[in-house]
Amino acid sequence: MASIRDVAKKANVAACTVSRVLNGSASVAEETRQRIEQAMKELNYIPNELARGMFKQRAGIVAMLVPSIRHPFFSSLADQIEKELYQQGYKMMLCSTGDDIAREREYMKTFRSNIVDGVIMGVSNLKDEEYEAFQKPLVMLDHKVNEEIPVVVSDHRTGGILAAQKFLEGGCRNIIHICGLDAPEVLSFQSHRALEEILSARGVQVKAVEIKWSNFDFDGYLELAKMILEKNPEIDGIMAADLPAVAFLKAARQIGRKVPETLCVVAYDGTYVVDTNLLDITTIVQPVKEIANRSIGVLVDLLEGRPAKPAMNMLEVSLREGNTTKSRIPS
Amino acid sequence: MASIRDVAKKANVAACTVSRVLNGSASVAEETRQRIEQAMKELNYIPNELARGMFKQRAGIVAMLVPSIRHPFFSSLADQIEKELYQQGYKMMLCSTGDDIAREREYMKTFRSNIVDGVIMGVSNLKDEEYEAFQKPLVMLDHKVNEEIPVVVSDHRTGGILAAQKFLEGGCRNIIHICGLDAPEVLSFQSHRALEEILSARGVQVKAVEIKWSNFDFDGYLELAKMILEKNPEIDGIMAADLPAVAFLKAARQIGRKVPETLCVVAYDGTYVVDTNLLDITTIVQPVKEIANRSIGVLVDLLEGRPAKPAMNMLEVSLREGNTTKSRIPS
DNA sequence: TTGTATGCGTTATCAT
DNA sequence: ATGATAACGCATACAA
What we know:
Two copies of one chain form a homodimer.
Chain A: H1 4-11, H2 15-23, H3 30-43, H4 49-56, E1 61-66, H5 72-87, E2 91-96, H6 101-115, E3 118-121, H7 128-132, E4 138-141, E5 151-154, H8 156-169, E6 174-179, H9 190-201, E7 205-210, H10 218-231, E8 237-241, H11 242-254, E9 264-269, H12 272-275, E10 283-285, H13 288-303, E11 312-315, E12 318-320
Helix pairs in contact in A: 1-2, 1-3, 5-13, 8-9, 10-11
The structure holds a DNA duplex.
């Protein structure tokens, strides 16, 4: 690999002059510039970004950590984030933890070692102190650590409210919500709070069933769904992320439960998994594009030392009405 | 950020002694080691990988370039590749081109600048010379440049043969194959060759319709499918990647075409998009895990200077039989 | 066992 | 307009 000094030698100048041509950082005589550009071409020279990064204390890379790259929500989000980063002149390093705490911790350690400039955390199973001890710009998704670290999150409370209304309209009495872990800092759990608040006030039963996102095994979801529906015939409403929601629809069909007549299903996320389904699924849609845009906006501001925006960034969800829920109670 | 010299100062030793403790590269007195480890802890020291990489001429990062991170096939593959890389001690940098040639070229340039050690090319729209001029280990997916650059590819010819058999069994007479571009170096086109060879020998019409992978817009696929089915009522067989295949199934249902009675559909890839469908879709399955394993095996061998394996790595596809095709011609 | 000197490739500062 | 020098943080060869 040709270095800047090889180019300098070939063009009969000092290395720093080559550097000046490279960066346009100072005026160089036209004739000298030509010689240097010629030499760069002949040597097929490309600057070493490692050395550059070392000098500038900046790698030009942002890491994103997710539970699974395959997961449709995270792959859609990562796709958008990469696009945003590209526009801002950064590269993305996408890593996945498989929801394994040790791997998350290990990656966080790697990220501190100057290989990346900042991190988007799409997974967060460590203790708050560990995020607070991270000494670089960090943006958390769906997880509030404290008042300092920026967080980008969908308005899950509204998501829960919208879903609750659908269940009420459908006259449902026994709801199961397939969801993530319950912890005060896990903001997506707000959807469950809202659901429960509204529905139990109307005497509707709501039960949470916790699963891990990274157990991203559709057949497993399908078995779970079948088991739940068979063991609990009184269940008449399901809220779940796109993938488990689809699993319930498939399970319902297999055991002969009619949707939406005897079972209402609301999917949560709105990835292409709902689009590709033959049914038109009622869905709470997270604004993936806006999440990506806001996350990178906040992170790049931090990276480039611009004034900080508010730490809490909440974005609107929307309801897409399909026919896996009933619009009105038949009277 | 504490540097190795800060640690050295605190522990009253020279920097190289700290380095020795870090790497276990030479014996250090037990008491000295303790002092150093203590100092590292107190300073919350983490080695600077940029500096390390600069010295070692190695970044510990492998790039993967794909047309779209969202695409279920590529996100599944990227997920596996990341796992394989992690096991081998490398990080992955995942980038997408949106099938834009300029972006692919730009990324290739970035990848040469010592920021990554090698590249997995999941997209390849440049001229062969550009890949040949790349001076680092490269593994191409589905694309043969020459006899030197390693390529990992599914046995698409067999894929085409398996599909052709299904169409023959179903008595289909007019097939449409939704596929990528036709070029000698694009190996996935072999499936089309095989399909045509076998079917036209039996007097079955086969027509190729080219689409771009990155136009990853399900509604667009759906419109296309509806248009094709309505304008060509004689069509009785479809082969397409998972996503467009599902679009055809949805379109068929919308315009009242019966599957598999009057329309057979074979999906190609076998991502979870077919799993999540309510129908049981006949599918040619690419061995994603094996592709990832072989790709990284070959690449890491190159990176670590081990003897090169054969350049051509072809992996077996399999048929998963569903009920979007007929098993026997009703006589 | 430990320390000194040097280089990896780049760029900023200061000098000419 | 151009060059010499030093520094970024680390790891090696060599010396002590």
